[in-house]
Each structure stands twice: as C-alpha cells, then as structure tokens.
Design brief:
By secondary structure, this protein is an alpha+beta fold. The chain has one domain: PDZ domain (Pdz3 Domain), CATH 2.30.42.10. Helix content is about 15%, strand content about 30%. The chain is built from two helices and four strands, in the order H-E-E-H-E-E. It has a four-stranded antiparallel beta sheet with strand order 2-1-3-4.
C-alpha cells in the first residue's frame, strides 16, 4: 500500500493517491516491494508506464511519466 503520494510527483500527476495498492507496473505484477523495484529498473526517466492500482474494490489504470528520482531530505 502506498502510504502517501507526494505533491508534484509523477504518481500524483497520474491520479494515484495514498492508500492505493500497486498491483501492476508495466507488464509486471507487483505483490511485494521487490517486484516494483525490479520492474522500475526496466525503465528510465521520461518513459511512460501503465500502472494499475487497487483503490478499495476498484482497479484503476493510469499512465505515469517517469521522472528522475528526487534527492532525499
């Protein structure tokens, strides 16, 4: 589950919200964090990736345009 989605991030721009559960990233099924990390390595900034999240009982598809990762605090 996504704890929070930061304002201005590609996820937020695609309509993904805190509390959503990521179930698919590109063609990759996501069940654990390592699935997402492996899938993310297949792409680079600027790529458009279809993602599927579960929000309650609903599955929502969105297209995310990846950006460079921000530096941490």
């Amino acid at each position: 589950m996504l704890e929070a989605v930061l304002e201005g991030t590609p996820a937020e721009k695609a309509g993904i919200k805190g509390g959503d559960v990521l179930v698919k990233f590109g063609d990759n099924k996501v069940t654990v964090l390592e699935d997402f990390e492996g899938a993310l390595r297949q792409y680079k900034p600027g790529d458009k990736v279809k993602v599927t999240v579960r929000r309650g009982e609903q599955l929502i598809e969105a297209e995310v345009t990846l950006a460079r990762r921000r530096a941490g605090p």
